[in-house]
Every structure is written in C-alpha cells, then in structure tokens.
Request: fold
Amino acid sequence: MLEQVKDWDDDFYETFKPIAMGFVNEAEKCLQCGKCTGQCPAAAVTPSYNPRKIIRDLVYGNVKRVLSSVELWQCFFCSGCYSVCPMDINFPFFVFMFRLAAMNEGYGWEDVKQLEGYAEKSYLKDGITVSTFERNPFVMDNIGDISKIRVEAGLPPERTVSPRGIAEINMISDLSGMTAFMKQIGGVELLDCTTCTDEQAKRCKTKPMPSKVGKIKTHHRYYNYGEPGGKKNAEAR
Amino acid sequence: MRLRIDEDGIRNVVEEAIGKSLTACLQCSKCGGGCSHSEEFDLTPRQVVESLLDCQDQNVLDSRMIWLCGRHCSGCQAVCPVGLPLNDIMAVLREEALKLDIEPKYEQPSLVYHKFEHCAKHRGEGEASESMVGGETQPA
Amino acid sequence: MPRLDKVAQIPKPEQIFFFKSCVASNKYPGIEACGTESLRILGVEPVESDEQTCCGGFVTFANVAAPTASMPAVARNLSLAEEKNLDTCVVCNGCWTFLNEFGHFMNNNAEVKGSVNMMLNMMGREYKGTSHVFHIAEMYYRLKDDISKHVLRPLKGVKIATHYGCHYLGGGKYSAIDDAQMPTYMEELIDLMGGTVVPYAANRECCGTGFTQIINGKDLSLDHTQRKLDSVQEADPDMLIVQCPYCHSQLDRVQQQLNFRQGVNYQTPVLHIAQLVGMALGLPVSQLAFAAHVSGRERLENVLDRVGR
Amino acid sequence: MSKKTLVIGGGIAGITAAQKIAQNGGEVILIEKEGELGGNFAKLAYTFPVLADAKMIVTREIQTAKATSGIEILPQTELRGVSGSAGDFTVELNSPSGTRSEHVGAIIVAAGFHYMEPTAYTEYSYGRSPKVVTSLEFEKMAAENRLPKGNARVVFVHCVGSRDKAKGYRYCSKICCSYSAKHAIMMKKANPDSKAYVFYIDIRALGKGYEEFIRDAMEVYNVRYIRGRVAKVIESGSKLIVRAEDSLIGNPVEVEADLVVLASAMEPPEGSRDLAGILGIATDEYGFFQEAEVNVRPCHSSKSGIFLAGSCTQPMEIASAVAMGGLAASEALTLIR
Reply:
C-alpha cells in the first residue's frame, strides 16, 4: 500500500497522550532499534506483527493503519518489550489503549465479544473471573469434580465471594459504564452452536464471524503490516 | 515469523550470475521508493537483496516480487547508487524458483482478516475451545 | 541476582492479607491450599476475606472493562487489606501486576484517586494506598531461612526447571526483586530445598497465554507454547515450576491439547512455587492437590515416591 | 617566567600534550595512575580507520616522550590536591614513594575514558556465559591468539550502554561502529572461515575513511551487517542464540553464534567526579569534564588555567584526542610563557 504522508495525522500523538490517561507516553523517544521485536513472542510466531512499526506509526500519526490492523490484536501482553526497551517505553499499555481506540472506530469487536462472557457470566455474577466449568472432555474425565479435590486439600468445596462483594463490583460496573458497555455488545449470542443446523455445521469452520456484535457493526481488520504469507487466514481475492 | 540466519543460500548463485557481490547494496531504499509498481509487490528490491544476504531463500523464492519485477521496466536498476543489476537478479531468482518447481505467483492475496472456527461444537473431541458458551476451559 | 535491597524492604509480618486468585481457586486448588498452609508454617498467618473479588485484570485486558471500571475494583480489593491494616500477598503474577500497577497509578494521580474514592465512599469504603502488594514467591525468598529450617521432605534428586512468567519480571522491571532477564531467586529456593535446577534455553520465554490470545488467537498461542515445551522437554526436568496460575494452566493444559492435536507426547508436570514449597515443607499429599493437574501425573507420583509421601 | 605544566593522564592525549609543550621549551610533569604509559590506546591491537599496528604506534610515541627533555614522567602517581590560580598552582602528587608538592602554571587534564562494564545487560548473558565478551576482552583475545577457530560465527553487538536511557547512557559513544568493524575485520583476517555478523542501529561513520572502512568490512571482508538491536543472547548447549529483529525486512531473526562481542560504551574515567572536585572544575551530567564552550573552546575547563584534552570530555577517536592534546598544549604554553 502506497503511504501518503498527507494522510498522517501529525497531531495525533499529542492529542492521544492526554486521552490515554498517562498510559501512552515516551513514544517519541523510540530509536526504532528493533530490540522489542527481536524478543517478541508474538512476532516469533506471526509473520507480520511488529511492535516497532506500531510505535513508528503512532509517532507519525499513521493511525488508520494501526487501528484497522489485525496485528494490534496479536499482542501477548508479555511486557518483554518493556523489559528490554532502552528508552523504557511501556508498549503493552499502548496496545491496550490502541485497542480501546480501535473499538471506538469499530474494529475488533468480535474479539471483545468472545471475552465478554467472562465479565458478564463469571466476574460480575460470581466475583471470580475463571469458573470451575470445564469443557474439555479429557480434562473432565481426568480431574473429575474439582470441589472434591478442594475438600481433600482442606478448602471449602467452593470458593465463594460474599453477596456484598458481588453487589459492590456490580455497583462499580454500573457506575463506571461497564454494564452499559456490555449491554451494547451483549445483544447477539455469537457463539451459539447449540442451535446450529447440520448445514450450518458444515460451513462452520469456514464461516467468517458475523459482522455485527450486539448493536455494533464491526469493520474488517486487515493485515496492515505485511502480507499474511499464504496463511490460511488470507484467501486470494 | 522468526527467521534463522544461515550461510548457504542461493545468494552465491545470484552473485555468480551477475558477477557482483550483493554486499554492495547500501540498503538506501531508492529502488523501492522510486518504483511505480511497488504497491503490487510483497517485497521491494531492497528487501529481496537483504533477504538474500540473510539467506532467507524460501522467503524470496515464494514471493510474488520475483515474478512481477524486472520484466518490462528497469526503473530500480537505473537509480541504484551502486549499480546492482536488479533485473538480472530477478531473472536468476525466477530460474532458481522454476528449478525448484515453485509456481509463479502474480495475484495479490487479500489482506482482509477473517475470523473462522468460532464454533466449539465441531472441533475435535478432547480439545478445549475458544468458545464462551456457558463457561470456559482455558482460563486465559 | 536478586536485588537484596528490594528483598530487605519486604517486611516479615505476623499476618498478611491473602489475595485469592481465580485460577488458583477454581482450577488448581493446590496453589491456594499450599499457599496459605506454607505461610502459616513459616510464621505468617494468612488472613482471607470472602469479600475479595477477582483483581479484574483479565476483563480489563480483554477490553471489556475500561480502566475507569477496573481501577475502583482494584481499590476496593486493596481497601479490604487496608481495613485490616495488612499488606497483601498474591499468588498470581497477573494479580501482582494489576494491583501494583493500578495502585501506583492511583497513588500518583490524586484526581483519579479522588474519583475512585468517591465511588468507594458510596459503599462505605476508602482507598488510601497503604497496603503493599507482595508476590508469594517474594515472600518465600524473604522467608528462605525459615523455609530451610522447616524442610521435612527434601527434594533430593528432583530435577526442577523454572518459569518465572512475564508479568512479574517483565512488567515489573523496576519493582520486582530480581533482574528481569537473569532471575535466580527461584533457583536459590530450589537449591535450598534440596532440588536440582535444570537449565533450559527457553527459560525466559513467555508461556504463550498472551492474556487473551489463548482464546482469540489460539493458533498463535499454541505455536508459542509448543516452542517453550520443546525446550523444556529437551532438558527433561521432573517438574516445571511456575509462579503464576495462568502460566500453570497454559503450560499444563496445552500439553494435553498438543498431544491430542499433533500426536506428540508432552508429559512434564507443572507446579506452582507454592505447591513446591508446600511439598518440601511436608504438607499432606492431598493438600498439594495434584489430582487437579492434567499433564505428567505419572511423573508427579514418581517424584512423590522418591521424596516420600 | 617559565613554569611547569602538569599533565594528568598518560594516554595518547596526555603524551601528545606533554610532547608539544616540551618541544616548545616548556617543562612538563606527566602523571599516570597506572604503572605504564599508553592508556586505553595501549590495550588495542590495531587502529582504525587505517589498520595499523597500535602497539607499534603507541610505543613510538611513549619513546618520543621519554626521550624528550623537559618531560618528567611519574607513573603510579595521583593528584591529591590543588591550590592557587591560573599561572600559579600548587599541586600535591601522591605516589607509592611518597607525596610531593609542585608549583605549576597550568594543568592539562587528559584522564581518558573507561569502557563500561555491561553487567547490567543480563539479557546478553554477559557475566554468565564465557562466550559473551566485551570489545576490550576481544582485543585481548585477538592479541593472545584465542579467537574462535574453524567455521565459527561471531556476532558483534553495537550500542551496549550507548543510546540507552534504561541501562546505560543517552549519548552515542561515537567509536563503537568503527571499532566493531575493525574487530570484525580482525576476526575475518585471523580466521577466514569464520562468519561475522554485526547488529547495528545506525552506522555512525563520520568523515574521511570511516564510511569506506565500514563498507570495506561489508564488501571486501564479507561481514554481514544487520540492522536491529540485539534483544537477547541465550545459552543453548555449547552455542549462543542471538535474537534480534532485522528491521530492514521487519522480521525477528535468530543467529546461532560461538562468540558474542559487546561494543560497550565509553564512559567517563573512574573517579572523574572526584578528580573534578579536587581540581574545582565542572563535569556534565554523565561525569565527563565540562568544556567551557563546546565549539570554539573545547579544551577550556570551567576554571581558568586548567585545560582538557582527549576522551575525558566526550567520547572521541584517537585522531581527535591527539588534536585536542596539541590544542591543550598550545593553550597551556600561552599561559606559562
């Protein structure tokens, strides 16, 4: 893609800094040395993910490229880039803030939707993000009832959070707008396989995710930082 | 994708054929910058040379670049400050690719990312799924 | 090399607020049981509260909760410890980073702290920022003399590999007690308990969970974990020690998934440092809760046979 | 009125300054902390950008200084105290044989530099693996003929401690690009079967001969230059795995190496702040001596009568240190004559 310098938003970085609550800063110090990418676990397994390029595009104000990219959603949040950075740039926070900005532009909602259940069904309902539920049949057979193991280990059969605790985090969620946000994307059950017909089941593995998440229309994301390299995710036009 | 740098590549074949060392390349990007077709390419001439020097043969031979570049145009080699014969390099690479039965590629792949395989029910048994219906297997 | 000045700053309290982790409670109860019990043996009484909820790190990094929503949740949990006037001890790298990072942020940002407290005041709580958050591995290193005094089941001849996890050392490169690239404190603890440390090349690699990547980009995640497991298998340790329940779950469960998908055979038991310490301190086998582990159970039994049940 | 000049530091800048003053009829006391003259220059095997025998050159310069009348050389001597003002300083010199007091008209500080010990760079396995060495250790290995034999891969890492806010210094050490190229060439000359890889961020080869020197390393000696800062050096069996990004392709790369050479930064000489305290002159934020005016008075310290020469003011190559030694000598001469 031919980049047009006139498309770059020169002031983007300066305006983004205060919006990002102090989580995005020092990017202008980047030397483009590539130390981050050299140790990056995501870059080691994907052909196009590259933190260095994302920082460069942030500083140049080439926001469209960052926000519409799928690479933005490939970060592992391992903080390895921060731990080696000679300029102490905390890149994982950039990704975090960028993802919020990308969602604002309508990208990546299908990913968020996949995770929304953790908040709605586990975190806010039980106060615990990861429940005891097992789906993997092997694990179910192998481990059996987790509450039995808990009892043997001298713990109560179930870890519970008191009703007051749950009420309080729900209150926080309501007050901070998290509940409203979840309602916005919670309208459609994306991953309901219990209702799908045989015909749907056949197409299942090749069917792209729906473009609407709840009330929000999602945009396609692109491999903006390099071609997918014949990976199965890209098809010929 | 992490690349492993080795020494034995087709770099030597290319250098022999053009009678010049690829190390002369300054990596100045003048070739790609001035190219009117670079939008269609996956690699620029500069990246081809760099990849050859790193002996990333597979990357180069699998690229579209070698089939698209250096056929009806010599814009890049005209501006190259060290005079690398880029058309000849591409010709040699095409020959090498044909020797290895690599199909020519001209089509640009779609860069749209599609998310598939979202249905948990139809994955093999014994696998955890990414699905969220009713709970989860993997915590994160 | 551990930063001894940092270690010296860790107090040796009589009581500590034990922050329960979601995975440690619901998937690997041995971590929770061993964590509390081992602290008790080492002379620190863990204090629990059933009002404590999850740290909220996962939903935040899943972008479901904005920082504005997770900051009050962090403050609320920390205020529980503050009410009791205790420091906080976590068993999970994620909890550690999240409580620390957002705690610091609020402490250094009066405006945010004010608005968070406004919310907390509505439920009769207040966040002051006085409770320090310590990782249980830090506590063990601080209490290593007590550990060596109480070893009942020396891990003689047990080959142990370590995995530190990213969110403790990487994210906390200035606040962790050891160097982010060349940590050794877990090795020291293993030595102390009589085990043999097995080095392997991918020690400082990420486990591959990638917070949400195991759900959203599973192929990437498995690919990376496989690299790590390959390196571990080459070194052939009796067990792999982690200090984060998320790494634990990833490394343990993905072995089975890779075995299933690719017909390979990864069988390395994964243990949390709390379980290892619990084992050395002679806790009953049922309390180690190895029954909740997915991979390498045979090998674990074998280790138990050797060190004594 | 002819007074003596005190030259602190027996490296190439100090030796040059002493020679020039003595050759112009002045008297010099040249003190050196170590037992021998030569400083950092004497630790090198070759010079750059022209590959010449460094030992031979530095020995020749030391001989000239020793043979020049009017230079008193005091090895193992340190400055303990200074009083007085320009044209009339009283200095106190301490050596194992005792303390002595001297009257001097001018003082030239040529305290040199120190190669940073990259102990903070644990990601490069420095201090853990014996196969990760600094460039100074590489010079020693080369001199003792201990370079890897056979089909070995050697990786040179630029900017270790330089251009690094987190673990080192923010400045560029200026000479590392050139001396790494020199080392790569030395490696290739000593063992033509070996492979040399240099990981760089930018190549700072300013001026005549330098760019050509590095291009020669690439083109004639076939040293592979890869743009990207090395992220990690991991021990794996008997080999080292070097991880970095080739940022010209944009992909992470991995090289299996037998030896990793870290181009450690030039840092201010040990105890530079103490010495500045004794002399009453200013240092900069890093501990280098502060010049009065960077451009046109590079050898004036913040105190009149005390002049600076060589790499104790900023990282510099041999030629500049020699030039600065000469300039400091002429400044001192104007004062004492």
Remarks:
- Chain A touches chain B through 55 residues (CB under 8 Å).
